[in-house]
Amino acid sequence: MAVETDEDRAALLADFGDDVVITPVSSGTPQPAIVAMFEGDYVAVSNLGLEREISDTGPTLLCRRTDVVGVVAEDGVEILTGEGAGVYSVSDVRPAWGDGAFLRLILDAGAIT
Q1: Average pLDDT of the segment spanning 50-65
Q2: Rounded CA gap, 75 and 27, in Å?
Q3: What are the C-alpha distances in Å from 63 to residues 19, 49, 87, 88, 106?
Q4: Which residues are registered as beta bridge partners of 106?
Q5: What is the pTM of this model?
Q6: What gap in Å lies between CA 98 and CA 108, rounded to an integer?
Q7: Cβ proximity of 36 and 61 under 8 Å
Q8: In CA terms, which of 44, 64, 77, 109 is 20 to 30 Å from 21?
């Protein structure tokens, strides 16, 4: 049983998030804008079965799973507002926490224009 609803998650992102447009590489057509939370700080990427966690300091985007269904690596991301405003590409899509309600898009900082 989920503690919060999808509407609760949307409210969280509305309070702290930025406007984002995702363009799937498969269609090249921008999707309707969503609200997601840009994070440019430390993020644990994976432990890959190793003793230590591998981390990155590159930008990520915290999104509701329902907002990014079908997003894959190489899709384009344009952050329209906030400190992370710019154009990126998705390098990976990871669950943000155990319940899978949020996904973290790992962004390619080299694609910033």
Answers
A1: 76
A2: 10
A3: 11, 26, 16, 15, 11
A4: 60, 92
A5: 0.79
A6: 24
A7: yes
A8: 44
- Per the document, the length of the chain is 113
Instruction: Please report which helix (H) or strand (E) contains residue 40, including its range.
Output: none
The residue assigned the tokens 């898009």 is 105
User: Cα torsion at 34, 80, 57, 25 (round to 10°)?
Assistant: 70
The CA dihedral of 38, 95, 93, 58, to the nearest 10 degrees, is 40
The residue written with tokens 């079965």 in the block is 49
DSSP-derived secondary structure letter, 33: P
Q: Is 37 exposed, middle or buried (0-12, 13-18, 19+ CB in 10 A)?
A: buried
pLDDT at position 104 is 92
Q: Per-residue pLDDT for 44 more than 90?
A: no
As given in the structure block, the two tokens for residue 37 are 């939370």
